[in-house]
Amino acid sequence: MAAASGMEWLKSVKGVILDMCGVLYDSGEGGGQAIPGSIEAVKRLMDSGLTVRFCTNETQSTREQFVQKLRVMGFDISVSHVFSPAPALVRILRERRLRPHLLVHDGLMAEFEGVDTSSPNCVVIGDAAEKFSYQNLNEAFRVLIGQEKPLLFSLGRGRYYKETDGLKLDVGVFMTALEYAGDVQAEVVGKPAADFFGTVLKDMSLQPHEVVMIGDDLVNDVGGAQSCGMKGIQVRTGKYRPSDEQHASVRADAYMDDLAAAAHAILTSSPTTER
Amino acid sequence: MAAASGMEWLKSVKGVILDMCGVLYDSGEGGGQAIPGSIEAVKRLMDSGLTVRFCTNETQSTREQFVQKLRVMGFDISVSHVFSPAPALVRILRERRLRPHLLVHDGLMAEFEGVDTSSPNCVVIGDAAEKFSYQNLNEAFRVLIGQEKPLLFSLGRGRYYKETDGLKLDVGVFMTALEYAGDVQAEVVGKPAADFFGTVLKDMSLQPHEVVMIGDDLVNDVGGAQSCGMKGIQVRTGKYRPSDEQHASVRADAYMDDLAAAAHAILTSSPTTER
């Protein structure tokens, strides 16, 4: 199939970065469920000769546990191809010799093994979900305000995500809350930070214009990738809402019904792949 | 005593608006405790012939219960002289025929008696304290995002307040969180909203330049009053922090050690009062 009018850029795609939650699967009770057609779509993309990486702001479990959950759903994914914020943050903490107060999900704690958390001099928040209690937020705030120069790291800046039982507030909401309380601007590790996408591109050995990001989050996936020079496709699954297509500042290079449709469009356009 | 250099404005003061928490008392277990000298200072101001009103963003109890708590501490205050956000908001809800989803402290619920909360079409948040759980925030968010045009009311926009056991996050923090989550700008009822100060000034029958606001919150008390043309004194009690005196955008007309010192300065300068 030839690329549709205005979609000629699909022909130069050599690599694909896939968001996970809302693109591959919907999260929820029992770990969630695969979005129809996505398991096969991932397989087709990986078999095609394209360079495929996975990029998630998931911070409710370690990367290993997270990939294991996707394997159980039927996805054949290697841990080394998955990029998530916690390992990137641990590198930063070590480099800058920082001692974090951690407000993160219990499932993520193992990523911080060996990190000194005594007498904390910065605050780290992830998608802590139920742990975002008034008491825990007060505690994080007191660490912040007790510093001469408060330092707040946020594992992503998402507004909300979709679980099988409804929309849930994401880490960016509590980042914004603590920013306001502590009069501080958070350093974001994860999408849409350019540094984070840069690490993935480096691992792919590709130039930004050769890569397309596929996500359900218009601002963090599509907008973040576009800011780095990549193309961005928004899929109409996960947290997608029709109003996204009239967003004031971010316009996707394409909107597709789901990952299966996006993979089909890429694979039938790119000269390096199946036709 | 003559007014100090640069403080000649004290001579034209005919009315005083007092913030309550952090100026009259420190809140905390058992209702809190009076700040030394403040009971006598309130009495002196009221006996002097100045018009005195109280203006609080307190939303953990009804106005009646709140005044009763202060009476137990030793303050002689009339309910009709106390202005708080909830009654002002109830008027707005009635005028605009809105049905709120309430995320407020249990102690405040009685203020909303008779207000229709079925099929909510807006969200109201107050200082809900422990009720700011992840689950309750998700619920408020879902009401917001379910509206074609989300509408969020916040009873104040304070960052934090001081209780006897430490600093606590105030409603403004959760307002900011829901603003970000729902991509909406809250309508603030209470300090520092000009409408709210305007209601108090009208009740005092005074012009703004004749009135001084005394508070521990530089931005919401002092800055808010100054925006309305009043003078503003910050007291070094409650949530005051030394860095407030180097704030980037708000500069108080005077900084005083406590309410007793502020009352003394006003009463020894104003020609209409005791010397």
TrEMBL record, chains A, B:
Origin superkingdom:
Eukaryota
Q: Which InterPro entries match?
A: HAD-like_sf, HAD-SF_hydro_IIA, HAD_sf, LHPP/HDHD2
Sorted alphabetically, which keywords does the UniProt record give?
Cytoplasm, Hydrolase, Magnesium, Metal-binding, Nucleus
Q: Name one Pfam family in it.
A: Hydrolase_6
The reactions it catalyses are: diphosphate + H2O = 2 phosphate + H(+)
Catalytic class of the enzyme:
hydrolase
Give one GO molecular function term.
phosphatase activity
EC number(s) from the headed UniProt entry = 3.6.1.1
Its Gene Ontology cellular component terms are: cytosol; nucleus
What are the required cofactors?
Mg(2+)
Compartments annotated for it: namely:
Cytoplasm; Nucleus
The entry's family comment says: Belongs to the HAD-like hydrolase superfamily.
Looking up PANTHER family in the UniProt record yields: 4-NITROPHENYLPHOSPHATASE-RELATED (PTHR19288), PHOSPHOLYSINE PHOSPHOHISTIDINE INORGANIC PYROPHOSPHATE PHOSPHATASE (PTHR19288:SF44)
The entry's function note states: Phosphatase that hydrolyzes imidodiphosphate, 3-phosphohistidine and 6-phospholysine. Has broad substrate specificity and can also hydrolyze inorganic diphosphate, but with lower efficiency.
Protein name according to UniProt: Phospholysine phosphohistidine inorganic pyrophosphate phosphatase
Species name: Phoxinus phoxinus
